[in-house]
TrEMBL record:
Primary localisation category: endoplasmic reticulum
Keywords, in A-Z order: Endoplasmic reticulum, Fatty acid biosynthesis, Fatty acid metabolism, Lipid biosynthesis, Lipid metabolism, Lyase, Membrane, Transmembrane, Transmembrane helix
GO molecular function, one term: very-long-chain (3R)-3-hydroxyacyl-CoA dehydratase activity
Metabolic or biological pathway: Lipid metabolism; fatty acid biosynthesis
Organism field: Pycnonotus jocosus (Red-whiskered bulbul)
Compartmental location: Endoplasmic reticulum membrane; Membrane
One GO cellular component term: endoplasmic reticulum membrane
Organism domain of life: Eukaryota
Function of the molecule: Catalyzes the third of the four reactions of the long-chain fatty acids elongation cycle. This endoplasmic reticulum-bound enzymatic process, allows the addition of two carbons to the chain of long- and very long-chain fatty acids/VLCFAs per cycle. This enzyme catalyzes the dehydration of the 3-hydroxyacyl-CoA intermediate into trans-2,3-enoyl-CoA, within each cycle of fatty acid elongation. Thereby, it participates to the production of VLCFAs of different chain lengths that are involved in multiple biological processes as precursors of membrane lipids and lipid mediators.
GO BP term, pick one: sphingolipid biosynthetic process
Record-stated family: Belongs to the very long-chain fatty acids dehydratase HACD family.
Gene: Hacd4
Membrane-spanning segments: 7-29, 41-64, 126-143, 180-200
InterPro entries from the UniProt entry: Tyr_Pase-like_PTPLA
Name of the protein described by the UniProt record: Very-long-chain (3R)-3-hydroxyacyl-CoA dehydratase
Length: 221
């Protein structure tokens, strides 16, 4: 009961954070139109970073056994966001004003509002079939779109990493070792898309497990 209550509070905190971000984005867009897109990161970036840092706890939840989700898919999804948000976007102010950041935040928060709503109700043993269907179906088209947005954000950031030398390391003589960070990002891109294929397979298997005919009948009853 204690662990279930803890997970409920965790899901509630994440739901509140992502709902605030999503609502803020919608209100700003309806008020200021396209002008609001370039200022998205400066308006909601702090809360977004807090929510993503908090999501690292989900890996711990799986490791200690209080969350029965599969470790590798969740680990890949969380690390993808951490890398793109903190390493790529947060470190380059020029990238923060790009429209792709707004698109990426919209996709992340749309998915998370649905997911944490489903999780909160599931902790209490409440399953609404439309919400269950939405939770396990919406991620299948939106997750690949978010990966494309992540890849585009990385490509957009490359010229700035090349110009400013951010995170690039060159050790002085007598060492002949250096790290050119744009190359690291370019090597990460195929890893990102390979991980996407693996995660999509996992999303389909989860959908089948929760929305199979037998499971739907059981939840209805």
């Amino acid at each position: 009961f204690t662990m279930n209550m803890y997970l409920f509070v965790y899901d509630l905190m994440q739901f509140c954070g992502h709902s605030w971000i999503f609502t803020n984005m919608m209100i700003r867009f309806m008020t200021f139109g396209k002008d609001s897109l370039a200022d998205t990161f400066h308006s909601i970036g702090l809360v977004m970073r807090l929510c993503q840092l908090l999501s690292v706890l989900e890996i711990l939840h799986i490791l200690i056994g209080i969350d029965k989700s599969r470790l590798l898919p969740r680990f890949l999804q969380i690390t993808e966001r951490i890398i793109v948000l903190f390493v790529v976007i947060n470190s380059q102010e020029e990238v923060q004003g790009k429209y792709v950041v707004c698109v990426l935040f919209f996709l992340w928060n749309l998915l998370d509002v649905v997911r944490y709503t489903y999780n909160m109700l599931a902790r209490m043993g409440i399953y609404y079939l439309p919400l269950t269907w939405l939770n396990f179906s919406l991620c299948i088209p939106l997750y690949p779109l978010s990966v494309l947005a992540k890849g585009f954000a990385i490509c957009v950031s490359l010229p700035y990493f090349e110009s400013f030398g951010t995170y690039s390391i060159k050790l002085p003589f007598p060492f002949t070792f250096s790290i050119y960070f744009p190359y690291v990002l370019k090597m990460y891109l195929p890893v990102l898309f390979a991980g996407m294929c693996f995660i999509i397979q996992n999303l389909f298997s989860e959908r089948m497990a929760h929305l199979g005919t037998g499971n739907i009948k059981n939840k209805r009853s």
